[in-house]
Fold this sequence. Notes:
about 240 residues, 6-stranded mixed sheet
Amino acid sequence: MKIAISQPTFLPWAGYFALIDHVDQFVFLDNVQFVKRSWMQRNKIKIQEYEKLISIPVHSKNKFNQLIHEVEIDYRHFDHKDLIITLEYNYKKSKFFNLYFDKIKNIFEKKFNKLADLNINLIMEISKIMGINTNKKLASSYNIKFKEKNIELLRKICVIENAKEYISTIGAKDYMNEIQKFKDTDIKISFFSYDQNFYNQLGKEFINNLSIIDLLFNEGPEAINIIRKNFKLIN
């Protein structure tokens, strides 16, 4: 069985969904320390000819050590309706906007208290839209009762799931010291890259590595074939 473990980021890029699609089990790493101003709470969309960061404010004052699944959205400084209007205004002319927008809008309108819940529900809904049926779980749901360093936490989850192969982003290769297997296991460690080639996009200038919603609104049902074509393993 192939497994991937990653933090539940906000409206992730296409490579995130390509990874989910490629594995048998995907685990949301929600029980590690939250990093403020990371991809957990922001991502990029296209506005006219430019990329723009959209962000979700969170309660973080005096909460330096909070875990991802503990982080609360700060609705005093976040109007979800403004974000919905921003998405609508900038993508309403895209070919498949009307097919998907209400489904994305409905997630924001639920006004989840926790950031991780918002992110995971968006990821689950977009996976469903794209036809990605990979099983998904929370890292916090495993019976790992003491704090682990990240690599050991990944190893334990893989062991519990009887994984044969763990697939990680290429950017984690140095962090993982280029090990080929987890300690005392036969679990192979592989890395992937995702090179986003041109796709139909609103505007004259193509902008790479935006949120998955840019690809989805512009390419619709073809999005799944595009992410599969651009995904490759690097060992």
